[in-house]
Amino acid sequence: MKTIQLGTSDLFVPPICLGTMTFGEQVDEPTAFEILDRSLERGVTFIDTAEMYAVPPRAETFNATEKIIGNWLAQRPGVRQKLVLATKVAGPSRGMNWIRGGSPDLTGADIIAACEGSLKRLNTEVIDLYQIHWPVRSVPAFGNIYYQPRESEGSSIHVQLQALQTLVQAGKVRAVGISNETPYGVHEFVRLAEQYALPRVATVQNNYNLLSRTVENGLDETMHRLKVSLLAYSPLAFGLLTGKYDAQGLTGADVPERARLKLFESTRKQRWGRPLALTAAQRYNALARAHGLTPTQLALAFCYTKWQVASTIIGVTSVAQLDENIDDWGTTLSPELLKAIDDIRWEIRDPAQ
């Protein structure tokens, strides 16, 4: 796998990124170590985490994932220099009162303090890519599809960029990124960075998969023209695009107890638990099988081969899943199959956006 430059930064990463939000919830520390070791062995040297993880978010597992990765790094001298390590500062608490006391804001001081905490937990002196997990502004994200104006918007993008600049100048962060963002947000981050000589965002980490292609409704042009790279998360749509829910539905008695849609009750209600999302997934999964592919192969190849995507974030709970996801790299989709995918989207659109 060739490496890809993230935005205009000096970071070069493989086209597959290991997502770690399961570490500390679905995945215990020994298994996480095995996955991290295997990821490095397979050339997936780009690791993404967040201060909020593990997921589903709970006070008991807040910061757990970063601690596990930090413990792994502490036991693997010399490994850190082989990695591009990314983490995220949580946005406004959104009801999670254990994050900054439930603050509805993300101030410059919050960003700096959060970064200091991540550095300690990760056992590292520098974070390669430091991202804002979700905006302070009111935006249509996490299953919401409409923008709702608010009178009070909290700390400005300019203030957040100034805090990120402090971290970059201190040598604690190499590059910065944003997540769950809109075309306006990307434009504003870049505009202010260029106007005031502040750090330019290298990446946007957004939900992108067969059930949620809204990136292609304008955000992709924004990123292309402004030279900002897309990190695509949830390529398997929370497991819907693996086929595991095709027969029993989203809440059936046969759904495994450790399946995400049983564990992640709040997330299921956001977008993945919509009946139309399952209907669409069943259509794509059947299409995959009709073309001699597994549902997972189709879903991952869709992301792996899209020009919009710089790196696809895969989240796994076992070494076997990791190997399967990496092995799917190189799968090609015929023009006929791509047209069939677009035909389904034209009919059902984006049920899990």
Automatic annotation (TrEMBL):
Keyword Metal-binding applies: no
Name by which UniProt lists this protein: Protein tas
Domain of life per record: Bacteria
Species whose genome carries this gene: Rhodoferax lithotrophicus
Signal peptide: none
CDD domains, alphabetized: AKR_Tas-like
Pfam families, alphabetized: Aldo_ket_red
Ranges for domain NADP-dependent oxidoreductase: 15-344
